[in-house]
Amino acid sequence: MSIEHTLIEIGKKARAASALMARANTDAKNRALRETARLIRDNKAALKAANQADLDKAKTNGLEPALLDRLALSDSAIETMAEGLEQIAQLPDPIGEMTDFKNRPSGIQVGKMRVPLGVIGIIYESRPNVTVDAAGLCIKSGNATILRGGSEAFLCNQALAKLVSQGLEAACLPQDAVQVIDTTDRAAVGMLITMPEYVDVIVPRGGKGLIERISRDARVPVIKHLDGVCHVFIDESADMEKAIPIADNSKTHRYGTCNTMETLLVHQAVAKQVLNELAVRYATKQVELRGCPRTMALLPSAIAATEEDWSTEYLAPVLSIKVVDNLDQAIAHINQYGSHHTDSIVTENHSNGMRFIREVDSASVMINASTRFADGFEYGLGAEIGISTDKIHARGPVGLEGLTSQKYVVFGHGEIRK
Amino acid sequence: MSIEHTLIEIGKKARAASALMARANTDAKNRALRETARLIRDNKAALKAANQADLDKAKTNGLEPALLDRLALSDSAIETMAEGLEQIAQLPDPIGEMTDFKNRPSGIQVGKMRVPLGVIGIIYESRPNVTVDAAGLCIKSGNATILRGGSEAFLCNQALAKLVSQGLEAACLPQDAVQVIDTTDRAAVGMLITMPEYVDVIVPRGGKGLIERISRDARVPVIKHLDGVCHVFIDESADMEKAIPIADNSKTHRYGTCNTMETLLVHQAVAKQVLNELAVRYATKQVELRGCPRTMALLPSAIAATEEDWSTEYLAPVLSIKVVDNLDQAIAHINQYGSHHTDSIVTENHSNGMRFIREVDSASVMINASTRFADGFEYGLGAEIGISTDKIHARGPVGLEGLTSQKYVVFGHGEIRK
Predict the structure, then answer these.
(1) How far apart are CA B229 and CA A118, in angstroms?
(2) What letters, b where the CB count within 10 A reaches 16 and e where it falls short, cover A318-342?
């Protein structure tokens, strides 16, 4: 069968399964999640064997060590996958929820009902745990999903797909609700993102290159996250007891995450004190500092930042620093060079804080908190399928709700339009 | 200047204006709306002269009479535009509204703030009133907008744009917040829908051909409405005192609107009674009936419906009718042939009604009400920029809220991530 026919068959099955998933009750969905968790634990040995075969092949193909690391499935990674499914089972079911009913002058009552999006296509790279996380979120939100993992994790993804399928079957839900594309043919991605008849939304997870390519070519809406050039702005009135730990934590808690601070902005009035204190902290952690001219005058250890630095997501122990005249300059810098992901102000001035959160055009805006809090679990979503830097549909951490839509419901009593 | 440069200049101005609009206060936005309403009334003669020049040219070019009708700007149409702006001024301002704050175990408080989308591109055909309606909704929702009207309404749209611009100026808001593209070059549309740097969302308003073309070529998200193949299903337990008026009103209240019923589904148990009663009503209004074989057996006046009829939006006094065995068949028919716009069940059976609204995959689902209620004003949105048949972002009638997005707001007290 040609790749085109294969994808159309998968799409048709997904569409049919999505109608059944949309009306599945909460109990059945939770049973499928818990049963899959059990199967994952019971089949640990088989999963590790499949993963080892993937790893062997990847080594032969000369995959970089960093990518090999992400590909490896440890005992604890397997347990985390199972626990993740059990956590999703514990979340409230968003589907069917009716809200916002109002009586209208005509006599009708108008409200909204939360419903699944339909079929979600998920395209991702190395990490096999995405297979299980994404399947779990789609099951709970009543969607069907078509998963396309990286070719380097092929065997492990297929093994996981089989277990999810068994979990669905045990709960009398359609096995086609979760399909993992079983070909490594690259043309499959091109097909998947251009089948609006069968796929309602695409969620790409991976490097910026992958996501840009998918956004450019997709004929289906894409919920995407490009990059995280996040800022902390330390205002004139900042409480140093808050500012220093926040600037430290935002940069050094983890270097490789999208909500890590990449640029620190400091009000000129407090720049000397702030930079001296922070330079000590960053030095002990070997963070390389790249500064504007005013920063360099205060910190001889810093090297000169280039124009490119201001829009770079380092994902590494590197920080760019700029001294600004005032709040306006800070906001303008963030809106110009940032990636609309997460930005935080440290201030004791109420009006400045409120202006910052209103005027900074980012998915998450914060006052006196570390940028590292921008995360589905920390926000109380229970789980996340990604963080969106788009403005349409879902913005910021995307949990179950981001995989749903609301339709209008009208309760009448025989009303007709006059 | 080349068309490309012109559009980029317009895009840059819109982007700059959108930052100012996003923080404009409610009073200034309302002042701009009311001032524009006043200017429209004061300049009625000039608007009618511009419209007459457009009409003369359109006649010379041989525009169809139906399109000439839509192009004509009567005294009452001018008054309706002015009143529309005043109504938008009276609506609550959605921007800056903060909701859903929750305390998290880490100590942070997480909530959401409603913000504008940024720059909205609106592409529309004949009717010049869209210029004013769309401008008004974008101003109130704090967005900048780039409008591209039909070439046949060019002079009138330019005259209206000038008045909106004066209204913005009077309220000290940026005149570039509303720009009407002042070229009839068709390449302008192609540019506008492929500039994600400058345009955040496109709203096309017009015929299905226009919308399909824009959806296919856009590199910017599109909020769109394709067509309205709406259904009424008269269930076995329907109250005939409700069913007959609803089926009559849904079809005959207005023929040319997207929420008009195009297919009537009738449960076999009540088909004879329902069809006999309705045939009399439809006959007095000269509605042509096209039926399935069972319908034709009951109504000799009906002609045979073809497969194509079930998915046709007639926008005319034509109705297709199908007798179905049960609720399941009705739901399956709607989900297969409908356009996911608006569908209504007439029933006294609670469980059937609840299944219908849950399982019919449409933007508006109704129990015992006319499909004609699917409308921003009837739903209490105050105004609408269109009706979306998409599932992503906005579904059903799109009012001010559909032109906004929500960002996450975090209030901390110095919290860092452990």
Answers:
(1) 20
(2) bbbbbbbeebebbbebbeebbbbbb
Give percent above pLDDT 70 in chain B: 100
pLDDT digits (tens, 9 = 90+) for A185-244: 889 999 999 999 999 999 998 888 888 889 888 888 888 877 899 999 999 999 999 999
Residue B293 near residue B306, CB atoms below 8 Å = no
Burial (CB < 10 A; 0-12, 13-18, 19+), residue A45, is: exposed
Q: Which of A226, A230, A227 is nearest to A344 (CA)?
A: A230
Q: What DSSP letter does each residue of B327-351 carry, written as one string?
A: HHHHHHHHHHHS-SSEEEEE-S-HH
Q: Name which of B35, B12, B38 is nearest B173 in CA terms.
A: B35
Phi, psi for A313 (deg, rounded to 5)? -95, 100
Average pLDDT of B1-6?
88
Contact between B415 and A370 using a beta-carbon 8 Å cutoff: yes
Q: Which of A104, A250, A358 has the CB atom closest to B378's CB atom? A: A104
Contact A23 B359 (CB under 8 A): yes
Rounded Cα distance between A27 and A21, Å, is: 12
Q: Do B416 and A362 touch (CB under 8 A)?
A: no
In this prediction, residue A90 carries a pLDDT of: 95
**Tokens at residue A110, please?**
């108008």
Q: How far is B57 from chain A (nearest CA, A)?
A: 38
Mean pLDDT over the full length of chain B: 94
Could you tell me the two tokens for B50? 């511009």
Amino acid in the structure at residue B253: H
B323-341 confidence digits (pLDDT tens): 999 999 999 999 999 999 9
Phi/psi of residue A87, nearest 5 degrees? -65, -40
User: What does the pLDDT read at residue B129?
Assistant: 87
Dump pLDDT digits (tens) for A76-117.
999 999 999 999 999 999 999 999 999 999 999 999 999 999
Q: Are residues A361 and B390, on separate chains, in Cβ contact within 8 Å?
A: no
CA A184 to chain centre: 24
Joined together, the tokens standing for residue B378 give: 């009837």
* Nearest residue of chain A to residue B108 (CA atoms): A369
**Closest chain B residue to the Cα of A21, Cα to Cα:** B359
User: A292 by DSSP, 3-state: which?
Assistant: coil
What is the per-residue pLDDT for B385? 86
Among candidates A102, A373, A414 on the partner chain, residue whose Cβ is nearest the Cβ of B410: A373
pLDDT in tens, A245-261: 999 999 999 998 899 99
Report CB contact under 8 Å: A396, B408. yes
CB contact under 8 A, A410 and B358: no
Cβ contact B408–A96 (<8 Å): no
Using the predicted structure, report yes or no on whether residue A286 has a pLDDT greater than 80.
Answer: yes
Residue-wise pLDDT tens digits, B72-83: 899 999 999 999
A-B C-beta contacts closer than 8 Å: 225
The pLDDT of residue A269 is above 80 = yes
Least confident of A14-28, A58-72, A317-331: A58-72
Closest chain B residue to A409, measured at CA: B365
**Residue A227: how many CB atoms within 10 A of its CB?**
19
The Cα–Cα gap between A218 and B28 comes to 40
**Residue A37: both structure tokens together:** 């968790």
Which of B213, B251, B398, B410 best tests the A interface by mutation, with the highest count of A CBs <10 A? Answer: B410
Residue in A closest to B106 by C-alpha: A378
CB of B393 closer than 8 Å to CB of B413:
no
The residue of chain B with its CA nearest to that of A366 is B410
| Distance (Å) from the alpha carbon of A33 to chain B's nearest alpha carbon | 23
Q: Residue A330: its pLDDT value, please?
A: 98
What is the rounded distance in angstroms from the CA atom of residue A122 to the CA atom of residue A148?
6
